[in-house]
Design brief:
This protein has 11 helices and 8 strands. The protein has 329 residues and is mainly alpha-helical.
């Protein structure tokens, strides 16, 4: 399942590739079909098993509220509950509707794909910024020592036994938020609407009908109008009192967006990043190795953006995929 997902990502095309063969590779449909079949072999039984569980609960509690007959709050559980609520007759049938199964599988794959790509890119920048800010790394490690013992090798066992330990990491959350404020791994678009216009600060209006409106998270999350010291890495800004000048105002942190169209992967992504940091931060020292990388001439002439060598490219990944050196602590 994991290998198929990663292979699928490597074979994706987004239309921005400079090489035409990369955009229109004739092998891509065959590779996609093979990887899809591999992922479906894993996902389909899981969906059928969750459906059978929900179906059994619905039969025994036909009058209970949907939230009471939900054994969990996972994406699959919520989808099954909604499906059974909209199709009561499904509680007496032998299996799940084939069209709904296909839809559910595609949505689960999309959920996993989106979270995997943005989360992995965000983790690269989190670890990079920690390596360049040793005081912040020391505080992060101290917080992890407090909640998961002084032995990093026991962290995985402790978190498995008590997942709520991840809710006791305020400084870790601040590090994550500040890192992805500076290097957001995603942005969003919205379809324009008739009668809806965007108003410029000088009063000029831009109609959006027939347009795709894009929001650049990188720009708004470094805008000095909203962020004091916008280009500085200051995790503590997320831990200060509401009346502190450094405390983030509501709205400009928009990586996952807000409101009914906010990214449903927010909680999953935050949990994944916290788990990885607890398991990795105390065990390894990670240092960017662009100097060695550039000296070999692998990527051509070295470049910087706003003085930053570890700039973002592609879909928000670190430049040159962040060459680095990893050492045991």
């Amino acid at each position: 399942m994991v290998n198929a997902l990663r292979r699928q990502m490597l074979w994706m095309a987004f239309g921005s590739e400079g090489n035409l063969l990369a955009q229109y590779n004739p092998l891509r449909p065959l590779v996609h079909a093979y990887n899809t079949r591999c992922m479906d072999k894993y996902i389909c039984p899981e969906i059928d098993a969750r459906f059978a569980m929900q179906q059994g609960l619905a039969k025994h509690n036909p009058k209970s509220k949907s939230q009471d007959k939900t054994p969990g709050r996972s994406v699959i559980d919520l989808a099954m509950t909604a499906y059974l609520n909209q199709n009561p007759e499904a509680t007496s049938t032998q299996g799940i509707d084939s069209d709904f199964r296909k839809l559910a599988m595609s949505q689960v794959k999309l959920f996993l794909f989106s979270s995997h790509d943005t989360t992995s890119s965000s983790l690269c920048y989190i670890l990079y910024l920690l390596s360049t800010h040793p005081e912040s790394l020391s505080r992060l490690r101290a917080e992890h020592d407090r909640i998961s013992s002084l032995n990093p090798s026991q962290a995985a066992v402790l978190i498995t036994e008590d997942p709520y330990l991840l809710n006791k990491l305020p400084y870790t959350v601040a590090v994550i938020k500040e890192s992805i404020r500076l290097f957001p791994a995603a942005s969003t678009t919205r379809s324009g609407e008739p009668g809806f216009s965007i108003t410029h600060s000088k009063g000029r209006q831009y109609p959006t009908e027939g347009c795709l409106v894009g929001l650049t998270s990188h720009a708004i999350q470094r805008d000095p109008a909203y962020w004091p010291q916008p280009d500085e890495y200051i995790p503590d800004r997320w831990l200060l009192a509401l009346d502190d000048p450094l405390y983030p105002v509501k709205g400009p942190w928009r990586l996952f967006e807000h409101g009914p169209r906010a990214c449903i992967g927010l909680e999953l992504s935050m949990i994944e990043m916290k788990v990885v940091l607890v398991l990795v931060a105390r065990s390894f020292n990670i240092q960017a190795a662009y100097k060695d990388f550039d000296s070999r001439g692998v990527g051509g002439a070295s470049k910087t953006v706003n003085g930053e060598r570890v700039y973002q490219w592609g879909a928000g990944q670190p430049c040159e995929n962040l060459p680095c050196r990893v050492k045991n602590v």
